[in-house]
């Protein structure tokens, strides 16, 4: 007599990346060279995705937008305005695209931009 015992354990590691409902992006200004509107600009702070996958400069995990010069960027940063890899042709400067972020489109943060520009000098 024998009793077949098969014990199967399926350890399924489901990692659910929930999108931040607060980071809803609203497009106000038309992007000059943005033909692809389907690029999901999801600002997920502190997640690995921000380091290993292309992300807007404002969502960079290597160079936090709030504490590092905006002109700085990593290999995966892309221009929020041009939708191309950073730096773009208009990356640097006072009105450079490096300052663009999803939040900038909601609020006008010119003061902050000037402040950042002066710090970079
Ligand atoms: Zn980056
Ligand atoms: Zn640009």
Question: What is the element layout, followed by pairings?
Answer:
Blueprint (H helix, E strand, L loop, with lengths): L48 H4 L2 E2 L20 E2 L31 H11 L1
Parallel strand pairs: 1-2
Q: What are the segments in which pLDDT stays under 50 over at least 5 consecutive residues?
A: 9-16
What is the rounded distance between the termini?
A: 84 Å
The fraction of residues assigned to DSSP E strands is: under 5%
The level of helicity is 10-25%
Q: Mind describing the biggest β-sheet?
A: 2 strands, parallel
> What sort of overall outline do the alpha carbons produce when their principal axes are compared?
globular
The helix count comes to 2
The beta-strand count equals 2
Going across the biggest sheet, name each strand in turn: 1-2
| SSE sequence, one letter per element | HEEH
Gyration radius, to the nearest Å? 20 Å
Which ligands does the model contain, each kind named once?
A: zinc ion
Structural class: little secondary structure
pLDDT averaged over residues: 70
Write up what this structure looks like:
The chain has 121 residues and is largely without helices or strands. It has helices at residues 49-52, 110-120, and strands spanning 55-56, 77-78. The protein has a domain at 40-121. The chain has two helices and two strands, in the order αββα. The N and C termini lie far apart (84 Å). Bound molecules: zinc ion (2 copies). One zinc ion binds next to loops. The site of one zinc ion has 6 residues, from loops.
